[in-house]
Amino acid sequence: MASRRRMLLKVIILGDSGVGKTSIMNQFVNRKFSNQYKATIGADFLTKEVQVDDMLFTLQVQIWDTAGQERFQSLGVAFYRGADCCVLVYDVNVMKSFENLNNWREEFLIQANPSDLENFPFVVLGNKIDVDGGSSRMVSEKKAKTWCASKGNIPYFETSAKEGFNVEAAFQCIARNALKDEPEEELYLPETIDRATNRQRSTGCEC
């Protein structure tokens, strides 16, 4: 039986608008998908207990998306700080969303300013592999893996938020990466954490 620990792991999900960040989060936490699209403006987050090596942890999955709204961009520093892992998401059918991964990665490192820039854990998700049965795909798996290898062998997963494909496996990897260098004393949840954090605080669904 897994032992329970009151430990919080903060995971930030970044990527272009429309790549499926909210849908991936909802599929992981609630096992639900919506075809309705409404861009997330600002921040959105959900929490879920995850089990890693017979230990249960609270994974807080957060999305940051300004959708071009400049008034939100200055809030990024506070949002990124304290993250244990950053997930970069692109749409395999949109080359530009893949090309922008480097910008998202660099922005995160600048804003979050982690203590170890070279070894901070990232995970890359190539989403929407289900679209048109793969016939509209623009970014090959090989191309994505080559980019990940060039950035320090970032773990890479191809996912379908709609069908739930590889989402659970990806978040198991994300949780392990978030855990690997964290001092235990920094992970305990404060007693003031809102008991309602399992409720979605969303401004819309992104699919």
From TrEMBL:
Subcellular location: Endomembrane system
InterPro entries tied to this protein: P-loop_NTPase, Small_GTP-bd, Small_GTPase
Signal peptide: none
Transmembrane region(s): none
Cellular component terms per the entry's GO annotation: endomembrane system; vacuolar membrane
Membrane topology: Lipid-anchor
Gene Ontology terms, MF aspect: GTP binding; GTPase activity
Alphabetically ordered keywords of this record: GTP-binding, Lipoprotein, Membrane, Nucleotide-binding, Prenylation, Protein transport, Transport
SMART domains on file: RAB, RAN, RAS, RHO
Keyword Membrane found: yes
GO biological process, one term: protein transport
Record family assignment: Belongs to the small GTPase superfamily. Rab family.
Protein's recorded name: Ras-related protein Rab7
Source organism of this protein record: Stephania yunnanensis
UniProt lineage: Eukaryota, Viridiplantae, Streptophyta, Embryophyta, Tracheophyta
